[in-house]
Write a structure and sequence with these properties.
This protein has 230 residues and is mainly beta. The protein has no helices and 18 strands. Strands 1, 2, 4, 5, 6, 8, 11 and 13 form an 8-stranded antiparallel beta sheet that branches. Strands 3, 14, 15, 16, 17 and 18 form a 6-stranded antiparallel beta sheet that branches.
Amino acid sequence: FPNTTLFLSRALHYHYRGVRGGLAARHTSLYPGCLMHDPARSAGRGRPRAGSFRDFAPHALAEGRGLTRELASENGEGLTLQWALHLLEVRSREARIRQPAGTAQLVVGLSGPQVLVGDGDARVPLRPEVVVSERTATLDLSRPGPRGGMPPSTLLTLSYDSSRATPSIHFAHVTGHLHLRPDVRVVVVMRGSITHDDLSLPAKSVLSLEPGSSPYLHGEDARVVLLRVP
């Protein structure tokens, strides 16, 4: 996998934000104490939030050895999951990631020894920057390398409500200006640096965009992950 170190976790705290115009309320999860930049914006513009990976608290995997960090998520009425973007570090030979019933998942390998997704003969090997879709709430992960001494494997996962339109993960190399599509909700900077409005983000940073945010991004030899949510 490319030499990129990423982590992730499932958030346990939620920030309530009402949506104007009679739409259903949404809940966007943030870690307490997370250093998120939220500058004032002109009326009618969204407010981007930015932070480095270390600003998101790590949590141990429930099944297997490793760590998780949640980078961004959105929940609907009753805190039901709409989507959640995670970074995962796996250290054990096997691990299992469980999400709520009715959840589907996208997963992509980023660095470290290769990981197989699935169980038995249905296992699929993760390849660099190739997204694997799993229409299940449970991810079975295995690492078939030699026992002992293996470095961690790092993955990016997206969990989403399978009854909704499917989000998508894309990779892009940005040198100069990039016009973002309106449905881009998260930009993960894997290497290089980007600038968005008055925000400057180095490698290992996350930019969360609200509807109405500026669509213009400038990169300096940057490799980024784009999360698009219909």
